[in-house]
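Ticket #4471: structure export looks truncated?
Reporter: QA, pipeline team
Priority: medium

Steps to reproduce: submit the single chain below to the structure queue and open the exported record.
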Amino acid sequence: MRYRLLAAEDEPQLRMMLWDYFTAKDFDVTTCRDGEEALAKLEEQAFDIVFLDIMMPKIDGLSVLKEIRRQGNNIPVLMLTA
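Actual output as written to the record:
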């Protein structure tokens, strides 16, 4: 079973690093650049874990997390902070 990971990070180098590392560990990784895109991806498919940057454009990571929890989704979320 391949785990599905969503990595929401606006910094291209960090986003690529997460993709490289976790795909090498046999995760199915989806990336996005902002909170709006993260919420759209979460509506499109189910993920096993989410990595969220706190300071993203459009919708910040904390607001994305609040929306995930408001919808009753108990998916594990790791917050990425500077």
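Status: closed, not a bug. The export was complete when the record was re-opened. Leaving a note from the reviewer for reference: Residues 12-24 form the longest helix (13 residues).
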